[in-house]
Amino acid sequence: RIVPGVSQGLGMSSTSPRVKSQEFLDEFTHIQIYYKQKPLSSDTLTACQLINECIDLRRKWQQHTPSSHTQTYVKQPTRADKTTLGEKRDTSKDTLVNVDGVMMMQCDDSAPLGIPTMHDFLVDLAKICFATASGPVKTYSYYRLKLLQIKYSLHTLLNWNAEKEANKFDCKDWHKIMKVDTHVHLAAAMTRKHLVSYIMEKCKNASNEVVNMRAAPNHPTSSNSTASANAKPPSQPETLGSVFKRLGLDPTQLSVEQLDVAAGSATFQRFDQFNSKYNPFGNSELRSIFLKTDNLNGGKYFAEITKELFAQLEAKDSCQAAEYRLSIYGSKRSEWDKLAQWAVSHNVRSKNNRWLIQMPRIYSVFRTAGLLASFQDMLDNIFIPLFEVSRDPSSHPDLHIFLQDVSGFDSVDDESRLETKLSVSPPPLSPSEWTSPEHPPYAYYLYYMWANLVGLNRYRASLGLSTFDFRPHCGESGDLDNLAVGFLLGRNINHGINLQKSMPLQYLYYLCQIGLAVSPLSNNRLFLDYKRNPFPLFFARGLNVSLSTDDPLQFHYTQTPLVEEYVIAAKRWAFTETDTSEIARYSVLQSGFTHEWKQKWLGPNYLLQGAEGNDIAYTNLPNIRVKYRKETLDDEHKFLEKIRHVDTMKHPNPVVNLHMNSAVERPLRQSTSHHTEFTRVVMVAPEHASECVDAETFEACSKLEEALELRRKFRADIEGVAQSISHIQKSINTNTRESFRFVNGVMHVYRKDISCEYCKTDPAVMACDECSSSKLRSSSPSPLPPPSLYCTECDRVLHKRPDLRDHARHMFDPEGPIYRVSEAEDAFKDFMKAHTAVRSACAFGPATGLATQRLCILEKKYEFYVLMNDEYERSAVRTSSIPNDVIKIDTHVHLSSSMTGMHLLEFMRAKLREAPHDIVLELQRGEAGEVIPMNSGDCVCSIHDDTYSSKQHEGPPPCEGVTLRELFARVGIKSEEQLTIDGLAVRADASTFQRFDRFRARYNPFGKTELQQVFLRRTNIQKGKYFSELMRQVFERNEALGQYMEQRVSVYGRQPTDWSYLAWWVDHYKVASKVNRWVVQIARIYSMYRQAGDLNSFQEMLDNIFQPLFAASQDPSSHPELARLLEQVSAFDIVDDEGQAERMLSIGNVPTPAEWTTDENPPYTYYSYYIYANLVQLNKYRACKGLNTFDFRPHSGASGDVEHLMTAFLLARDVSHGLNLIKMPVLQYLFYLAQIGISISPLSEDGLYVSYDQNPFLVYFKRGLRVNLCSDNPLHFHATSEPLTEEYAVASQMWKLSDCDISELSRNSVLTSSFDEAQKIAWLGPEYMQTSNIRQTKIPEIRMSFRRETLQHELDLVHNATSGCHLDPPVSLL
Fold first, then answer.
1. What 3-state DSSP class applies to 1302?
2. In percent, how much of the chain has pLDDT > 90?
3. Contact 978, 905 (CB under 8 A)
């Protein structure tokens, strides 16, 4: 089906008819921002200027460092290859000079090139620290990073299918592209299984090899002899087998658990404990034997296991490379030669590996041991051999060979230890002056490492030798200033997870694309739980991040640790193949492999920016992703560049054109000319996206349209009463007396002329052609025409007479009822067909995918809107004169628990003081003469002329009355002091979570049903007196607060007198308030009453509920109390535990309510339909009489089957709870499109269904569902005297809701409520459904415009996908 101009709103089609050219595959939906034109604030200008200054400072310092991408491969020299060791020029006169700890080579008597000094470094570092601590920079960075995150989410939602499509046409997949482990320590690069297997193999085959020299046992020494004391004890060789025997280890029984190198809970935040995990079997001797390069056998074992690691890297299907780290400590100058000799003599080399040299920051250890006299000695030991071998390769031939495979230097140790910060004044000591054992600060270490590397690189570059990157450990823990140091000096850094704590530094790292080699599994065991790792956040925002293993020996389980990192990250953070391919590409770019190797792995043009530098045949990365990253980064830099050229002296608050892509401005302005101006995000689709919509999307949208149309059909019956009654008002008016009859469970209204001619009340169902009513009354034997009409009973009785027995009679229903609930022959079957259609839509895979995408887009749109317009909203509210707080309505609160626990306790205390002798309970005797309290469920209550009577079940009459004081004594409370809030025991807690049965018991104060009967019930010996007083106090408190509510009051349908007693109780005790409307809740507990013998069928329950309502509506004067009550009723609800198992209904073979005579409780859908259908009939009848009508607003989706919500979608105006919508994206999207109100009580649900932090309320609100907050059961869940305010306050704090968010929720509560139209206009304004009167609602018009436009866009999107409407140009407002 050709549907122009649709796909751009739904994402890229996966079934385009075009041939998949590369140009076609590179097209995608772009995310653009349309900024509201306004003067830039001084804070924004300041922030941009400081950020530009920081970027300039990094460029200044990095210009001294050569790029690793310029490195070229040098053929591996050997000792026999003398030509590679000869000098290219005469370097004999080159002189090494040291200037304040920085070494440089002076050539040909020329002055050495200048390197920034420590003073320069500290000055610039202070500027970075000042900028990143600046308030404006913090705010600006937060907003920009959040914007980047939202844009990426929108990009993936709109283009994931296009990226996936592009991947289908390249010859690579993720397993075939190169991945570089850019951060892994060689001493821990093998896995535990690998190391144990290697050790066992060596113990088996080389147990007699000498590996250690140990002091001879029982060596005599003389304590009196100085010579003997100073002499070293003689040593004797020790074989590998002897070492294990001495340590008590059986080499044949070694296990991974015995190895004891895995990091665990003991190492978390304990770097000291972690270092000990490098010792196999907890023994440092074995570490020296197997994991050191300098030992008795020359590091032979370490070399062998390293070669095995290389073999794994070089395996045919590996596609992995590594940059293993080897340590140089700087304690001795011979370290370099020993390390190089180990590598060369054992030929430890691989084309898939480049060495990184890590320099542990442990100067204080060596100084304390007397190995160093000053920090300068450490620098000399590290760098002098490097300068010497660069000047004369033959002076250190092995080192010269070794350095060909070294790509960079690292600085490593525990960053979390306390250290003194450096400052310009007083200046720090020079390295030669630093002679104390005190540990130099991180910045001190890094500056001197960097500065000496600069001098070394310059010299080596002048000789055509390879150079080295500086890539330190940075930001794993410790001070944030370390990251500022890394920003200035590091080419890339390792870890960097502390960037999450500093938005300015994180933004700077993004702008400069500084590589971060992150190791989430390592972080998880040392510093940060995996679920809190910022890696996915960094990646989404566009930082240059790669995954690395760090220490597989301690952290990994599989034999491919790097793949393990990728797989776990992909599973935990839902990365796509495009994501992992992008991360892999970053790893190659960050690495120190040569230019030739990077070309081989990434393509020949990898150095070019954007799509020009990406070759999907090498990287498996679609150009779509690369283009998006480049566009986004360019936009950020363009924004900053525009600010750079602003003259703030002439224009302190300039208006800057912030549009980054002029190509979309024209159609965008056309599209938004009629909208309220605010900063919008727009998506610009490629040209071909307007050509067609795929079949799956078409069918998905068709099902959504069908579901919405079905809801309109059912809701029109109950909402469109005014339009539907015009044709029946002629048959119904206030002067007629209609008859009522249930037909298949639904009340129908009949005209007066078809009532029984004999009894005048029941509807006529039989017609007799031979009878005449006048003759019958006069006992005349002669029948007269026309036919007489009788009800069933009268027809049976009258035709018992012998002379009438043979009369011809037939069923009579000439016109049927005045109106029906449905035009269908079987209304319930018609409803079930609609229900099945909605279920089908919810289960349809493409509809689920579409709904999930659109809901996520809605969420991100809201986040973007708030991010970019929050200041304007606050300003609009601030500048408006708003006299009062906005109206909030508690749309869902149960009458019997609407007071707080403290309020109930105070009421009990007052009654115990003021009325201790009130008779509150009657007792009756059991068969054995025992005293039994009379339950309210054991009486049938009726009210007539303000009198109360109770009819007991079979048994002896009441024997005695119990006073209030006696009642408290009977339950163990003998003094007022024992009435405590803890003892009251009504609060829900962990024991009630997912336990509705236990929750019901919390309605019993102090755990006693007798106290509930006295204080919280209407049917008791006092006729609900205490309960009425308590409720009047609740109303008074809410009136004082100006707090409106809709109290749920229960009608059970157990007996016909339920309504009359409730009406009497409300009227007699004046339980009413101007701030309250009643919502009648019908408890779904038919089975309880059926088992008790109170009901014979479900039809009888419906009779008890609706017969009184129709009677009171027909003649209010005959039922004055009920008529007055119904004027205060706004809606009906159904309520009970939704988690109970229930029968699955099908379209056929469903019993009618009259046929439902079993003890089984009818399913939720069955209950809902028959309550709804009878409400439709009642509403039409009452509307014809000029009376108020009722909404249907059930409890739905708190727990149990999601089909409850499907039922509510069709029948309900709004619902309470709705938590299960989060499980069903299609239904959630339908609720959004239909704007069905959802009353949620997070504090209540936290105690019953879902923990507060997992409550979907915030997600619903962001996505635009019409949610509001309510209190539900203050008695059980709230601690303050203002439960609804408490709900709003907790939600505001937990979810960081703004004042505008609170106002929107308040408005939603008014819209969801069933208060009359005039009241809503008074609260919200005359056009409250379309606009916002900020003086009344505190909601700026731009918020309303955003919500309105977004909803209309989604409705158009679904409609246009099925109707073929044009959307031109392909620019779609989000």
1. helix
2. 50
3. no
